């Protein structure tokens, strides 16, 4: 981590003074980030830091909290238009701070009610980001989709929490009964996580929210908000071991079959942000399938894949926004031939899309290997779906790269400006952790 901090300081020294002003808030975030890193180290046992309702920091919580800090810092760096064009930078920072606080408490809470409360509170700053800084009038519809999908499915979980309190007199993760044998508790508790991750059939809110959100909203949705669903499942699935043979396999089949269908949908997309959003559904379907197997490979792979997808997908949304700021369109039919104009950004597209299709040495590769191992050991028939998902992942990644970088330039692109240091810095801070953590994979298997 000291090496990463030094790399960051060196990259800051290469920036222009104007970009350094933009990075002033980012430096404050990172100082807090590193102070948190060195003062509160994680433990492989959940009960080591058990202070009141919070600070249940094992490796699962710790890594997702660090991911939240990293993505929120990069959101400030990506949102230059908020700083220099609009006059709402203070409101933007306030919303971002509230979002980060809610994520921190959600990931570190040991109390079920506090976890549920801040799980829902994190929805409000995201909704403000979409409605306040979105680009099109359809952002209101996207906000309604996001709000009501989550709220409708979270009500059963609140009822479940009241039921557990009434019958078991417990609200702590540490003292929960590890063999809850009630199907309705299983469904009511996990349905909100299936929506958040999202599971196929419950995913329609995600492409709408991504397409209408500003770049900061897309980054936090792809980077952290989807991980709330995965984190909840990883925490709660250990309570329902008796359902491993019947209900879990149904969810596994839906997630794998949905991953294949969503991969096919990606091939028909003309909107870059929509394509990246649907690819998130496919990748998080693999995470959901790995969690449903409830074996060590599946749980390790789910954590690895969540971190890798958070960095990779967030970087792809930044790239799509960089092209949008130049051509004022997200259509693949209008954004063509950028290899001739921006060869440096073309390299960034190639590096992040190769990570998206799980090419070495990215973290996505080891995540997919672990998840594929876990699902094949659970059922050998899953190999059919996994082969199609892996193949189509490469297909739509190459489709996005070839359509955006090759071909003749759109004739309506009369004015154009090249890439700036801030954008290359932003993309480097997405790609570098994604590939450097490949060297320390043993850090991610201590929490199970």
From TrEMBL:
GO biological processes: ATP synthesis coupled electron transport; electron transport coupled proton transport
Pfam families: Oxidored_q5_N, Proton_antipo_M
Protein name: NADH-ubiquinone oxidoreductase chain 4
Reaction equations catalysed: a ubiquinone + NADH + 5 H(+)(in) = a ubiquinol + NAD(+) + 4 H(+)(out)
NADH:ubiquinone oxidoreductase chain 4 N-terminal domain span: 5-106
Organism of derivation: Galerucella sp. EMHAU-15070821
Subcellular location: Mitochondrion membrane
Family assignment from sequence similarity: Belongs to the complex I subunit 4 family.
